[in-house]
Specification:
The complex is a heterodimer of chains A (314) and B (515). Helix content of chain A is 77%, strand content 0%. Chain A is built from twelve helices and no strands. Classes of the chains: A mainly alpha (314), B alpha/beta (515).
């Protein structure tokens, strides 16, 4: 009886152990699959909206996709076509000019304003809010607004120029001024991004090294150049990377302000790809143009990442 | 506490939804029905439903319509005809009106993907080929054959409208669209300036003739120069003679063809699609259009003017003349849209005067387009019914009144309408000599090459001769890629296109139009 009882006593214990083992296995499986499960929606989304279009772009860039003409593999034909297109070369030069000036100016202004706002003690929050207003506006609306402001006949800018006796300008209608206007509008809208990033960087800097430099008798400028700036370098690189990528693939601003004109003095790479693909219905050539852009962006990003990596290693 | 508040919010949301849905589904109570009346009511309802089904065969259908909001005339038509058609047919009409700039790209992308976002859409004439090459729009011959000939009345359209806005220039025996608007060149001018006694006297003294809308290119440039002046005495020019679109390749080629190239006798291609941008006639037209003397009579920055800029200048009274198309008439004479509305008159645009014969040679572009049905649509018959409703004979008067524009011969010639819209007479004259752009799948790119060549003359200082030669080379390359020469495609003249339209009408049993 006792034995039997003992057996009976053991049975539930064994069951309990088995249950625990089973439960642990389930838990292990669940945790293993839950990691993948949590990632799955994002993976599906990435594959659908990024990976598939990229693979399809590569695929069609090697094919002739003209309406009414046989769709066949043409090797590097579309790439040769793009490189031989004078409009593409114009667009590339324009994009590089746009990118270098826009990034430089938005960085210098954004950085300067951030330092200035950081240095004031009263009304800092007010200025922060006011200065980021352009960033909160839709780029299309910004471009439309400036398009009317810069209209040579009815625009406010020329009205103001006339008021103070300055010679009236052709602005978006002039060959020499259109690119300047497009860059100005870009800088106006995006310098607040640099401002925000630098402000965040400044707020996160440790106070001790700066205070130590002051205690050692360093001047304000010297402290800024030798202590603050080196510490800010990774943040600066992030700001520059974001602005460079953004201005390299500019589309909305130029499209709304000048549609690439006058002539094609403000034609950019994105506009070229858009026109070729959607207006001329030549998706193969547009795909090839887009791949050149991706390659360009890849090189730019690589340079920045290398610089940032070096900074981190230091 | 946090858990409790989340629960309360969730319960509240569910309650609101349940109560809301219950309220929405509530209907007023029906009156009590006796057994005797029930049978009668049932019979009546069945008869009504049968009659409604016969009269409204598409009732309950949702028709998705695509058009562009960039032309106010289109918006006016939709504002009136969409609800009117809904009441007439029981169809639910959903119209999308994006801007013109992106419309072609939007619709082409939709049909390439096999989309049904639109059951029918307005297409610009030169776009047809890109859609027919993809078999994306429905051939309409069968629909036309089945339609009421007195209501659709294709014989009431000028044959040139049917040739360029109903067919695609590639398929020579098939209609693909029903014309909605036939654009031709028209010279808008400021009557207050042209009828000003001081200006009239000054002009007569200077040029030895009466101040009137110019009839040839020489008069055009003289009149434009005359009006380019400082009107308020502050030493700055504030009024210009005219303005054109030079700013963007497609706009450039549009204005060149509307005003100058066709009038000069130039043509874009020969019979075998050899490009003729460097022909003496085309070079002559481009030279006039881009000459410094001519540009000096236009506002500063005109080198980059596009569609919006030129009409704004006219509406704001900054220019004395504006060479446009009839689609803009409704906008120009609308006092709510144009401050100059009461002062604007319309005239036949200046033509090229042949120095040998002294004759003035007219010529303009056959612009705009018509309604086409998406080949992927599930509601093709309803779509055709909608088209017929909008451009059919029954609504002809409303169509004209809303848009100050005509599309039918009976509208152009109606004495009552002519009294109200005296320019209809000149529109019909222009329609009869208008020439359409090629409508092949490659046209958009070809147009860009041609326009780019013109823009380079202005912005890059390239010579007209060199620029046009380069355009010919680039066009030949493009057409080779599209196998135009390999397939021995033919570029039909306006007269040949008219004959194709007449033959197609005959095959459908429709009499030939009188104009």
């Amino acid at each position: 009886m006792k034995v039997a009882n003992r057996e009976l006593e053991r049975a539930p214990k064994l069951n309990k152990i088995d249950n625990n083992r089973f439960y642990n296995n389930i838990q292990r499986l669940r945790s293993r699959f839950s990691q993948t499960g949590y990632l799955l929606p994002a993976l599906v989304l990435l594959i659908t909206v990024i990976l598939y279009p990229v693979i399809y772009s590569i695929y069609i860039s090697f094919r002739r996709t003209l309406a009414g003409v046989e769709n066949i593999f043409i090797g590097l034909g579309n790439f040769k076509d793009v490189l031989g297109d004078t409009l593409f070369r114009h667009a590339l030069v324009n994009t590089l000019i746009y990118m270098s000036l826009s990034v430089t100016l938005s960085f210098v202004i954004g950085f300067g304003v951030a330092i200035l706002v950081q240095s004031i003690s009263r009304g800092r929050d007010f200025f922060r809010v006011m200065l980021i207003i352009p960033l909160s506006m839709a780029p299309l609306i910004v471009a439309l607004m400036w398009r009317w402001m810069f209209n040579p006949l009815f625009g406010m800018i020329n009205w103001f120029f006339g008021l103070v006796g300055l010679p009236l300008q052709e602005w978006i209608n002039g060959n020499a001024t259109a690119m300047a206007v497009v860059i100005f509008v870009d800088v106006w809208q995006w310098y607040p991004l640099v401002f925000l990033i630098i402000m965040a960087g400044l707020a996160g800097l440790p106070r001790q090294p700066i205070e130590a430099a002051y205690v050692d008798g360093a001047s304000g400028f010297y402290t800024f150049r030798r202590v603050t700036l080196p510490m800010l370098k990774p943040v600066i690189l992030v700001a520059l990377l974001l602005r460079t990528i953004d201005s390299f693939r500019v589309f909305d601003n130029v499209y709304m302000l000048t549609t690439g004109g006058p002539g094609y003095s403000t034609e950019t790479l994105s506009l070229f790809v858009y026109r070729t693909g959607f207006q001329f219905n030549n998706l193969g050539k547009a795909g090839a143009g887009a791949l050149f852009m991706v390659f360009g962006l890849g090189v730019i990003s690589l340079i920045f990442f290398r610089l940032m990596y070096q900074e981190v290693e230091k | 506490m946090k858990k409790f508040s989340v629960r309360v919010v969730a319960i509240a949301v569910v309650m609101v939804m349940v109560i809301g849905l219950s309220l929405v589904s509530c209907k007023p109570a029906a009156p009590p029905v006796t057994e005797e009346t029930a049978a009668e009511t049932e019979a009546e309802t069945a008869a009504e439903t049968e009659a409604a089904a016969a009269e409204q065969p598409y009732a309950g259908t949702t028709l998705k319509v695509g058009n562009t909001a960039s032309l106010p005339i289109f918006v006016k038509w939709h504002e009136y005809f969409d609800p009117a058609y809904e009441a007439y047919s029981g169809v639910d009409v959903v119209t999308d009106l994006p801007p013109f700039t992106d419309f072609y790209n939007k619709v082409l992308t939709m049909v390439r993907a096999g989309g049904k976002d639109y059951d029918l859409m307005w297409l610009d004439g030169p776009w047809y080929g890109a859609f027919t090459a993809l078999e994306a729009i429905e051939p309409l011959n069968d629909y036309i054959k089945a339609a009421d000939p007195k209501e659709l009345a294709l014989d009431d359209f000028p044959i040139r409208s049917l040739a360029y806005l109903g067919m695609d220039g590639v398929h020579t025996d098939q209609f693909y669209a029903i014309p909605l608007l036939h654009n031709v060149g028209v010279l808008a001018y400021r009557k207050d300036l042209f009828e000003d006694p001081d200006y009239m006297a000054e002009f007569k003294e200077k040029y030895g003739r009466e101040l009137a809308p110019p009839t040839d290119w020489t008069e055009y440039i003289e009149t434009a120069k005359f009006f380019t002046r400082d009107t308020d005495g502050d030493g700055k020019i504030d009024l210009w003679g005219t303005n054109h679109r030079y700013g963007e390749p497609n706009n450039f080629i549009g204005d060149l063809l509307i005003g100058f190239a066709y009038a000069r006798g130039a043509t874009l291609f020969d019979k075998n699609y050899k490009p003729l941008m460097s022909s003496p006639e085309m070079i002559d037209a481009v030279k006039f259009f881009t000459s410094k003397e001519f540009i000096a009579t236009q506002p500063p920055g005109v080198e980059s003017y596009i569609f919006d800029d030129v009409i704004s200048s006219m509406m704001q009274g900054k220019v004395a003349m504006y060479w446009t198309e009839n689609m803009m008439v409704a906008t120009l004479i609308d006092p709510e849209l144009s401050p100059m509305a009461a002062n604007i008159g319309f005239a036949v645009p200046p033509g090229w005067k042949n120095p040998e014969t002294g004759e003035i040679q007219p010529g303009t572009l056959a612009g705009a387009g018509g309604w086409a049905i998406n080949a992927n649509s599930d509601n093709k018959k309803a779509a055709f019914d909608y088209i017929q409703y909008m451009v059919g004979k029954s609504n002809s008067a409303k169509y004209v009144d809303l848009g100050a524009s005509a599309i039918r011969i009976s509208q152009y010639k109606d004495p009552a309408l002519l009294e109200k819209y005296p320019w209809f007479d000149l529109f019909l004259k222009e329609v009869k000599v208008s020439i359409g752009r090629p409508q092949n799948a490659w046209w958009e790119e070809a147009q860009f090459i041609m326009g780019k060549a013109g823009v380079e003359v202005i912005t890059a200082g390239k010579s007209v001769e060199q620029s046009m030669k380069d355009a010919d080379v680039a066009l030949t390359d493009l057409l080779t890629k599209y196998k135009v020469y390999e397939n021995k495609d033919i570029y039909y003249t306006a007269e040949e296109r008219e004959q194709q339209a007449l033959d197609t009408l005959e095959a459908l049993g429709i009499p030939a139009p009188t104009e």
